[in-house]
Every structure is written in C-alpha cells, then in structure tokens.
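Hi R.,

Here's the input for the IPE complex you asked about:
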Amino acid sequence: MEQHNLDLTRLPKHIALIMDGNGRWAKQQGLMRVRGHEKGAKAVRQTVEACAELGIQNLTLYAFSTENWKRPKIEVETLMRLLVSSLRKELKTLQDNNISLKAVGALDLLPKSTLAELNEVIKATENNTHMNLTLALSYGSREELLYVFKKVASEVNNGRLAIDDINDDTIHKHLYTHFLPDVDLLIRTSGEQRISNFLLWQIAYAELYFTEVLWPDFRREHLVQALQNFQDRERRFGKTSEQL
Ligand code: IPE
Ligand code: IPE
Ligand code: MG
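And here is the predicted structure with IPE in place:
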C-alpha cells in the first residue's frame, strides 16, 4: 500500500459505503450503464482489499436498494447476474484475506440463483475472522425498521417484553445488522449528498464523508483520504471538547 499518515489505532470500527455513480461514469465514457456496474465491481475488490489490509473490522457496502427494484428490468437483471459472477470470482480473495461475507436486506426478493450463490459464499466464509464484509442487497432502512418494529410489537403482544423495557439495545438486536457495531464513517461517492434509505438507525453518530469521485474510479488513495479526514475530526457525541 502507498504511504499514508493514518493512525492505525484510531480507525473506524465500521465503515459504510454508498457506491454511487456507475451510470454517470459510463455515460461520460459513452458506454452503456452496465459497463459502469462492471467497472464498479473492480472498485469493490480494491476497496475490500485495502480495508482488510488496513485492519478495518467491518465494511458494509450498499449494493442494491429496495428502491433500485424500480429500475429498468434489463438493468436489474444485469446487476443480479454481475453479483453472482463477482461472488464466484471473489471467493478466493475473501478466503485469502480471512474475510467473512454477510448480507442484509429483503433477501427473499432476490432471484433464486443469486440467493443460492450468495448463501454459498456466506457459508464458505462464515468462520473467517479478520473482517466482516456485509452487502446491503435489496436493502432499505425503512423496510428494516418496519421489520424490527413488528418483531418488537409481537414480543410485547405475547407478553415476552414489557413496553418500558424497550431501549436502544432492543432495537439493535433485531436489526438485520445486529452483528455489527454502529457506523463510524459513512462514505458516499459521486457527489450526491443524501442517505438514500441506508442504515438510518445505525448512522446516528456516524461521520459523513462525501466525495465527487465516481464509484468506478474509487481507489485505495480515495479511501485513505476519507480515513485521513475522519481522523482529523473531533467526535464529541454531545459532550464539550473539554470533556473529551
Ligand atoms: C450505483 O450507481 C450502483 C447502484 C445503485 C446499483 P448508479 O447506477 O446509481 O449510478 P448513477 O447514480 O446513475 O450515476
Ligand atoms: C443508492 O444509490 C443505492 C446504492 C448505491 C445501491 P441510488 O443511485 O439508487 O440513489 P439515489 O436514487 O440517487 O438516491
Ligand atoms: Mg445513483
């Protein structure tokens, strides 16, 4: 890895990444949107490897939102196919780097073949311990929270939970991301400055970082820049600077 001045003892424990700008990248090159997604897959590999190398424990990638189902059928199909072929190709990278693959979202909406491939890789890497790589797939934070609220309501309903005992932890343990800590750093590429229904509960105190770089152009150096920026910030969590 190229030189950096990062303090490796102060890395975010959980990075969430909104990988945006594949379509615009393709358009700039005079290519079909699909080509942008293909190029985006390469950026994924580089980012995953860089995170593993630096020692990031949890990386969550927004790969497909509940709203993305509204895209043209041909684009959705291509994205699903690309996902399967990337999973197949990247299994070795995951194993070599001791990375455990996870997925969060309304996974039952995925095509059967996609889900089968996904589950295979999840199973094959489940005992890996160096890093959790979580794909948010068919994921929408409101859908997730509705699922949580229904679960909690049913526990109250059948007398297993008292309303007064509902707290942050109750919500956390029912989230699709229950195995992950809160997000410390949220990165979004392509210049858009919005959350687009990603991890609403989990980013309550995340540092937000927006870059103009389009996802297919995202490289290690951009990740390092984001981490450098993160380390230059003071996270106060409501306290005063003097209290820290
Ligand atoms: C992100 O790139 C990939 C997905 C949402 C699946 P986009 O496809 O949203 O690219 P733009 O935003 O149209 O450039
Ligand atoms: C968010 O990007 C979803 C993913 C990156 C998977 P979009 O491109 O779908 O978001 P909007 O429509 O610009 O908010
Ligand atoms: Mg987009």
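One thing worth noting: The chain has seven helices and six strands.

Cheers,
M.
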